[in-house]
């Protein structure tokens, strides 16, 4: 079994160590007995490469880099939207998360269109309002019994009407907007989140969830390839991962 | 209040606080001086017209470059003072002035060298117009504290533009964004860099920020790179490309420290020093004879002897710096196996966020490591980071730093070298353990 991991704009959307998510997915998939191939998809790669991916990841970046990516997403965004709607699992952090919404409103009122696959919008309060910076701890119904941790550092505030679509509830930190205790967004098999840290190494349950969904999705779409067989993936000992996570929680 | 009186009062406060052991007294005399007179710094500087002022800014290499320039100037018989380690803020600069000034607010020196971090450069330049300003580099560093690289670059450009024509600017010409800033200035600008022969990277690494064209926003291309986003860059959509840089390739420089980053630091200082047109007695030129005698600042490629082991400390505090440390040690070990202790803290001077360790490539260390030890406040993050490199190495993980040090020392034979790569506060901590007392 092999999976294709698509890494969108690794050269531009990689300011906050989010590359660690790619490292974690690859590392854990290998232990589970799956061969991962990481495909970097940036400005110069063809848009239809996105359609061949089993997991998609995109990280956060600075404003200038996002301006460049925004232009490129005019075409690639169509493919990305289709993949997400088709149930291809994905993780979209910070700036990438904001791109998936309907729009991003700058402090001066200027509207930047997103690809609109997540029913949400983001507003920038401007440079005079402090950014949401710090350790963050959240709880998600998808992962009962555990807390997830990360580090957030964002200026934009994200809002949506249906709170049930949130990825998680904030225990400590800001989350989507610092007001309604929601963090991130969950739709089909895709996660939008503000958590850096990076999120996957210290929250291995989420990494494994994405890998399992990728395998499932691949099987459903490959007619006759073991569709009825339950997927058995090798379990991984998470002692060190849990210690790293517990440290962040203990500092609350 | 007269500045002379402020200096007197603050000197007294500083002495008393040292006497009573209320901290080192390094920055708060300056804090008080600035409360008593907001214009204390600019007024005292203005009262010392013969003093030449040099400002050194950048993400990495400030302390090393400041120490190197001070060393060269003092060798030439000049009197120099600098703001001491960690005194980067305005109150640190004011404290330095209080310490070095006499009771007539006179600074009896030829040169003042002020190092300034990313955030404080604009604040400092609001107060003083230096004779020379050196911009070493700009990398991502403590994003939760300093903010993003683009934001900093914009602030720098704004404040450099406000300086008068008196200020001469020295800029890293291998950094696309900094080179661009240089082209926007009306002052005299000189660029330093390294010779292309030393640029060995063909592909853009992970720890980069300024890899798009600042003119037209296309992705930049590189003929070759030295490290991070530094290299021989060009834009294929417009005319923007690396200009002429002073690389000292014709001078056979004996570089006093290892690593490409120190070639940059040294070339920068040589270029700045040459511009001062100081007549020196040496026939060989300073680049050979003098540089040999330079001892690095503490924690920056510093070798300490501990229980007959040679302990080599390389401060490593952000992705670009860490990757350079790793490249340097992997070259130094010359493919023979060595022991490594990596220490990750996340206190105020380190930045609270440790996400950045995932932008560091640890594989070259794992390749040459006999034993790998990790410690520090965020030891488990470091454990994960190293294990996820897919190496076969066992990662020896110690919450307690003293225990980690003793254990790795026991694993290292007498006379052999071991390498320590700490973040800033971890560097102070490990030196304290190795030296048995707090020593800056």
Structure explained in plain terms:
- The complex is a heterodimer of chains A (252) and B (440).
- By secondary structure, chain A is of the alpha/beta class.
- Chain A has one domain: Class I glutamine amidotransferase (GATase) domain (Rossmann fold), CATH 3.40.50.880.
- Chain A has a six-stranded mixed β-sheet. In chain A, strands 6-5-7-10 form a four-stranded mixed β-sheet. A four-stranded antiparallel β-sheet of chain A has the order 9-8-11-12, with helices on one face.
- In chain A, a hairpin with a 2-residue loop joins strand 13 and strand 14.
- Chain B is an alpha/beta fold.
- Chain B has two domains: 291 residues, Mur-like, catalytic domain (UDP-N-acetylmuramoyl-L-alanine:D-glutamate ligase, 3-Layer(aba) Sandwich), CATH 3.40.1190.10; 136 residues, Alpha-Beta Complex (Protein-Tyrosine Phosphatase, Chain A), CATH 3.90.190.20.
- Chain B has 16 helices and 14 strands.
- In chain B, the strands form three sheets. A six-stranded parallel β-sheet of chain B has the order 2-3-1-4-5-6, sandwiched between helices. A six-stranded mixed β-sheet of chain B has the order 9-10-14-11-12-13, sandwiched between helices.
- In chain B, helix 1 runs antiparallel to helix 2, helix 4 packs across helix 10 and helix 6 packs parallel to helix 8.
- The model of chain B has no long low-confidence stretch (mean pLDDT 91).
- At the A-B interface, helix 1, helix 2, strand 8 and helix 6 of A face helix 8 and helix 14 of B.
